[in-house]
Amino acid sequence: MGEGLRPGAAARTLLASPPLTPGYYAHFLPLASETLSVEGTVEEIGWPGKVLEEVVATRYVTPLREGGSLPGIVEADDLGTYVMKFTGAGQGRKTLVAEVICGELGRRLGLRVPELVTIELDPVIGLAEPDQEVQELLKASGGLNLGMDYLPGSFGFDPLAYEVGAAEAGRIVWFDALINNVDRSWRNPNLLVWHGDLWLIDHGATMIWHHNWPGAQASAAKPYNASDHVLAPFGPDIAAAAAELAPLVTEELLTEVAADVPDVWLADEPGFGSADEVRRAYVAPLLARAATIHERITLDAPTATRPSQAPGWLTDRLPPRRKQAAGDDRAAAVTRTGEEGGR
User: Fold this and answer.
1) Is the residue at 26 inside a domain?
2) What number is the average pLDDT over the span 194-205?
């Protein structure tokens, strides 16, 4: 099984439904605790070597206009297909840094996050691209970019169409609180359903404190309001998630995921003398936050509701409770549309 496939695709084929076990992915990658088995601090013995696979883009397939940064689907020299996020996009390199640190941290904690790679891009790949906006983005993104394994046939998660257990919901909400993810609400879930399992994507809008390093510790100490989180209605068991996952978020683990970030994305950061200094700055707030963030997660009533986006063929198969909720929301949407049309 998986014979002839690139490493990521082979692993994905075997592990389409991995168990949500803490540290599940750890055996695929060298652990920082092994890398740092000699005496001395991180500063004295250096950081672990990079772990993310590096591939070369061979064809730009199509843009994904759902994302504000205009990511695109590309093919690479390892025969893989990836969702590519560009260094030349408006959000800048820090978005890619957040994607790597949070995505790889989630994988180490046993959450399903598509494999990440770095992708070398030659802007000449876009010469035949008819869209001027895409051409300009490709020209501005020469060099190393980020790729996320493309999950063919995946669906966007809809809370009215899928049931999620309290344990899994708790793990995801706790993780989002840890990284201060403000972009997993019912408005924009950033969850995919693939082979019946939830997969977490798009972590670029996390760790807001890295946009203002002098205030990072104070910002990281703030609470997390999960009231609008897309999984809030599923009764997330946050206490159990904290007991399970918080002990795993060690300095060694965070050092490992920070080492995955390419030096070029950390270069010239104001106030820092080297890429490794920036990496250390990412470790400290997350380490402190992991210990107590479960005490500062609030779950109040959501600010609003929206109609289900699930297609009719899917809502017809929903359990009675979900089907009723979807029907009520669709009826409410029709009523609102009629009222607005009559004004």
Assistant:
1) no
2) 96
